[in-house]
Amino acid sequence: MSKKYLWLCVSVVGLLWAFEALAGQPVEKNFADNCASCHGADRLGGTGPALLPENLERLRRPEAFKTIAEGRIASQMVGFAAKLAKEDIQALVDLIYQPLPKTPVWGADEIITSHLQHVTEALPDKPVFSADPLNLFVVVEVGDHHATILDGDKFEPIYRFPTRFALHGGPKFSPDGRFVYFASRDGWISKFDIYNLKMVAEVRAGINTRNLAVSGDGNTVLVGNYLPHSLVLLNAEDLTLIKVIPTLGQDGKRSRVSAVYQAEPRGSFVAALKDVKEVWEIPYGDKDFPVRRIAVDNYLDDFFFDQSYRHLISAARDGKKGQVIDLDSGKKVAEIDLPGMPHLGSGITWEYQGHPVMATPNLKEALVSVIDMTTWQTVKQIKTIGPGFFMRSHENTPYAWTDGFSSGNPESRDAMTLIDKRTLEVAHILRPIPGKTAAHVEFTRDGKYALVSVWEMDGALVIYDAATLKEVKRLPMKKPSGKYNVYNKITRSAGTSH
Ligand code: HEC
Questions:
Q1: What CATH number does the domain containing 18 carry?
Q2: Distance CA 148, CA 146 (A)
Q3: Best of 27, 38, 63, 479 to mutate for ligand 1, by most ligand atoms within 8 A of CB?
Q4: pLDDT digits (tens, 9 = 90+) for 189-198
Q5: Cα of 201 to ligand 1 centre, how many Å?
Q6: Segments forming the whole domain that contains residue 50
Q7: N or C: which terminal CB in the chain sees fewer CB atoms within 10 Å?
Q8: Is residue 132 within 8 Å of 88, Cβ to Cβ?
Q9: How far, in Å, CA of 239 to CA of 212, rounded?
Q10: Residue 23, in any domain of the structure
Q11: Is the pTM of this model over 0.85?
Q12: For the stretch 116-135, what's the b/e string if a residue is b when 16 or more beta carbons lie within 10 angstroms of its beta carbon?
């Protein structure tokens, strides 16, 4: 018998055996019997999160295996190790990372049906607490899916409440700072009344969502989705549906949405598409919400605006040159040198030697690029302790703070680099809790204090005097991914992303 023939026999027997093993416990049946009650027969989610490849992007497969085998503490997700064999669990892992056989539909009907009105009566328009309502922080704790409303003067939590699973993209405020809107990974949009500490309404606007924006007049919410390929406009008042705009390029090609923003000085929303080379501008004062398409040279993954919102600065997927687009003319006006992988979504601006400059951390390289926003030339590349994710400052503070969060290196993930905005030199390195990941800074309304996240399950907010750099307080938090100061956000402080 030839070797080849022998191999064939072995393979056939192996395959038959594998089929038999599978036939014993079909994974679909295992899913239907054990998982569907919470995660939905269609995997679109229910009391448990959606289990689709798009939604599981940040969950590594071994972690998914562990979750299914052991469960998650303090949640309804119990472990299945006692009930299912290892191979069955592995088959379930493989299943949930498979796309659905048919693209799931999430259109107007599904959105309307999902709507939940939690509060129907008009609530008082005075805060039920005495803290300064403009110096509050909303702290998102992704560790156990909660948010904390924090008094920004006393640094005392006022209220803590559960959020939807896996909030995404940063909450946004109504222009007066009374309401905060959250988007979750699985498409849930929630409106929370900060004055009354109550959830007002919720709606599921998509299956996998990037982020949301609230119009400058406070009337409309725009949601950008990965799945389905759509933008969703909602009434900011009660989150009822205005309309769904499928994101199709000029040539009819479908696209995911990279991000949505509101450009208040222009009276418009701006949406970047991920799979077609277009940026969309949608004036929110026009009841028809017409789409103005702006053709661009490259796909836009991540972008940034100057303070006037006239210029859009974007990084390209191939990560070499950034482009500057003049939103008035719809034309590219400059290319900028942005090596590595800049995280423009976290860029900030300040005045340096009489010129406005922008600075952005870099996800791949340990540097911060500082760019002159009149000439679009690089002023300096500042070496930091490690590749960063977030960068923040404030008009009243001399330093720009950036983390080493994107560094795989534990030596730098716990450190914050403070750059002196006047000299563009590294002035200080801080380690809030040595050995623990530090990330995301936000300042108080007056810029006097900086709040740093220690991004761990048993993490903390570490609060610094921004002038003396002395720690003033430490508050325990469950993986505090971000904190958002009402005043700095609604006034669009140059030191924070909007
Ligand atoms: C009683 C409800 C319930 C059942 C039954 C259930 N789950 Fe879950 N599952 C949840 C909840 C709730 C979470 C979110 C846990 C948390 O807060 O981290 C979750 C989380 C998960 C996650 C992690 C998702 C992520 O993005 O982090 C996976 C994977 C998962 N479940 C798979 C399964 C599988 C496979 C089954 C069936 C064998 C199953 N679950 C059965 C409720 C359930």
A1: 1.10.760.10
A2: 7
A3: 38
A4: 999 999 999 9
A5: 25
A6: 3-96
A7: N
A8: no
A9: 12
A10: yes
A11: yes
A12: eeeeeeeeeeebeeebbbeb
